[in-house]
Design a protein that fits this description.
about 100 residues; alpha+beta; two-stranded antiparallel ribbon; 4 strands
Length: about 100
């Protein structure tokens, strides 16, 4: 009744709250033990309840070659670029602008 009269918690948590007869180091050790135990339990629970991530697929695709637009300098994939002689362009408008500029 002495612990309850002083406002101490009954049961398992009594040693955390009412450790007047124990050294502070022992109480701190117990507190750290329970915190670590709780953290591990939480980590295992999260790991068990999360859906498994699919394995990363290796990229079989080769990187597409890039070319530089002769008008604005933007790099675009060669498959999407427009070519006129040895020059590449990012759009039809830039192709026409460069043709009027160079004649």
């Amino acid at each position: 009744m002495g612990n309850l009269a002083r406002g101490c918690l009954p049961g398992v948590l009594a040693w955390l709250h009412c450790g007047s007869s124990e050294k502070k180091g022992t109480t701190m050790t117990r507190l750290l033990f329970w915190l670590i135990l709780f953290a591990l339990a939480w980590w295992f629970w999260r790991k068990a309840t999360r859906p498994q991530r699919p394995a990363a697929k290796p990229r079989d695709e080769q990187a597409e070659p890039m070319v530089r637009c002769a008008q604005c300098g933007v790099h675009v994939p060669r498959a999407q670029a427009l070519q006129n002689e040895q020059r590449w362009y990012c759009s039809q408008a830039h192709l026409q602008q460069d043709q009027t500029r160079h004649g």
